Amino acid sequence: MKNNKIRIISYMALYAALYVVLKFAGQYIPFLQMPQGGSIELELAAVFIASYHMGWKYGILTAMIGFLLTLICGFPIYWLNLGQFMLDYILPLLFVGASSLLGRNGSVRQIIGISLAMILKYISQLLSGVYYWPPEGSVAGSKAAWIYSAGYNLWYNLATLVVCIILVPLLLKRLEKTSAWKQFAK
Length: 186
What we know:
Helices cover about 70% and strands about 0% of the residues. It has about 190 residues and is mainly α. The two termini are about 15 Å apart. Keywords: Membrane, Transmembrane, Transmembrane helix.
């Protein structure tokens, strides 16, 4: 029992560190960055893998630890108020961390879980854009804000979805063959 707790903590540390490394790498690839915030988020692959490896509870915890580490490391965030912070950062990570709720085995379930998490992430960030980041000259909640936010948030969330749908199942297939994976399989 004690060894299992140590193993869980070790894997969470590994995935959180991978989250930070992928976030760091993504900062140095210019075409992944949006001019006013947002990017193709390679680091989400680490959270998806953690969720499918250890389960949704540990996936959420790993996502929060990874996010806190990025704050400690000084990665930029855009902060207006608690509502915007929750919609732009916390809720999307909760959705990604919980992606394994639909089932952990089988690539179809993984693709559905990843897709659903990314759709919920997009909706959360869409709402943030509509109510907290309207385009210049428009009012929060206006038609212009909805159109602008929908387009602005769509492309990088869609690109992140495609990257994760390709990368995560491939990595999970390789991990499923290891003894480390079998210790958490249910």
